[in-house]
Design a protein that fits this description.
This protein has 380 residues and is of the alpha/beta class. The chain has one domain: pyruvate-formate lyase- activating enzyme. Helices cover 35% and strands 19% of the residues. It has 14 helices and 18 strands. The radius of gyration is 20 Å and the shape is globular. The two termini are 17 Å apart. The C terminus is likely disordered. The chain binds iron/sulfur cluster (SF4). The site of iron/sulfur cluster has 12 residues, from strand 7.
Length: 380
């Protein structure tokens, strides 16, 4: 994770977190009052998306740290709460939506942790079961080389009994989290894919074997874990490959430690296609059988999605019939075909996940079924 340039917002130049980053990076960086020039330089480089992965801007979050998933009206939502602690990523997946989400994409980390914790404490005090995650606009664990935020959050969630935190990643280093008093309230989760997709489309991420080994280590340290098969990429032979990944997942981790497994098929806003073609010329992921969805995103032709979902749900159930398996951004027809029920028949997806959190993490917050409807659920 090579950072070539560090910029510090003048407003936070003396913040203790900035000093920590400077020390761990071995860089003083440039203090700026206005980041426009820095953004322009990144935008003007030959590969702005790659350059942005080497430029780090430390600033403060001037908006809300806690956000609800934005999503769309058209697909079933998981009711997730985003902790917006940072944005962009040091790894480089061909399908990553963040490449075209930020203009330009630059690594940004918000150092005003005191505001984050204040907001979080307010949410945790309302007695409702919330599921929080930091992995929406970034990978949850890439920042841990420079900051102890993840450890701090794990401890904070251990000290309450209503809500859970999910740290979602494609990395494999979790030794710094293993000895923490987590109380089972943090779920460590991994995005999984086939060896072929990881090798061809996920530059700089941990190999499958290492992700699964890290998950096994997490379980040995007492953490609940979760897995996300997202994005599923359709190619000749993919069903066999994905079944093999399911088998390996259960070889690594027993079902009693798994909070949930999600499945999401590759989907993308049309303007991502040009970025993938420019930055990943060897990649063929944008040339499948796609049709525009109700949310404007390109999605695989529905029968193809349904077939793959159904096969993978059957493979998961063959190992663990009771495990909470859900689909990301799909409608009732797809749910029924893949899983044999619709979320509404189980009280809604949000309730399904809340109940899984109660079972696996021992939390006792009030279930409100919040968040039915929209879901972004795009990253990591
Ligand atoms: S998809 Fe996730 S891991 Fe991959 S580059 Fe984007 S944020 Fe990083």
């Amino acid at each position: 994770m090579l950072i070539e340039a560090l910029y510090v917002d003048a407003e936070v130049a003396s913040h203790p977190e900035v000093q920590t980053f400077r020390r761990r990076l071995g860089m003083t960086g440039t203090t700026v009052s206005d980041p426009a020039e820095m953004f322009a330089a990144v935008r003007g480089s030959a590969d702005p998306e790659a350059r942005g992965k080497r430029v780090l801007y430390l600033t403060r979050n001037r908006g809300a740290f806690v956000k609800r998933c934005p999503g769309t009206r058209h697909y079933t939502c998981c009711g997730y709460r985003i902790l917006h602690v940072a944005s962009y990523c040091t790894m480089d997946c061909a399908y990553c939506i963040l490449q075209s989400y930020f203009h330009p994409p630059v690594l940004q980390y918000f150092v005003n942790r005191e505001d984050l914790m204040g907001e979080l404490d307010g949410c945790l005090a309302d007695g409702v079961l919330h599921r929080f995650g930091t992995g929406e606009f970034t990978d949850s664990l890439i920042w841990d080389a420079w900051t102890d935020l993840s450890s701090d959050l794990v401890r904070r969630f251990a000290g309450q009994a209503t809500s859970i935190l999910e740290l979602k990643t494609k990395t494999a280093r979790i030794d710094h989290l293993e000895g923490l008093p987590h109380g089972g309230r943090t779920i460590l989760s991994w995005s999984l894919n086939t060896e072929r997709v990881i090798r061809n489309e996920e530059r700089g991420t941990a190999p499958l074997e290492q992700r699964l080994r890290a998950a096994a280590e997490a379980v040995a340290a007492g953490y609940p874990v979760a897995f996300h098969f997202d994005p599923l990429i359709i190619y000749a032979g993919c069903e066999t490959d994905y079944r093999r990944v399911v088998d390996r997942m259960f070889d690594a981790v027993g079902p009693e430690s798994i909070a949930w497994v999600s499945l999401g098929a590759f989907r993308f806003m049309p303007d991502l296609k040009a970025t993938v073609e420019r930055r990943f010329p060897h990649s063929s992921i944008v040339y499948g059988e796609f049709v525009p969805g109700l949310d404007g995103k390109m999605r695989y032709f529905k029968p193809l999605r349904m077939q793959l979902f159904r096969a993978l749900c059957a493979a998961i159930r063959a190992h663990a019939p009771q495990i909470c398996t859900y689909l990301c951004m799909e409608d009732d027809e797809v749910w029924r075909h893949a899983l044999g029920f619709t979320p509404a028949e189980r009280g809604g997806l949000s309730r399904m996940l809340d109940e899984a959190a109660m079972r696996r993490c021992g939390v006792r917050g009030r279930i409100e079924g919040q968040g039915e409807g929209p879901c972004a659920g795009e990253c990591a």
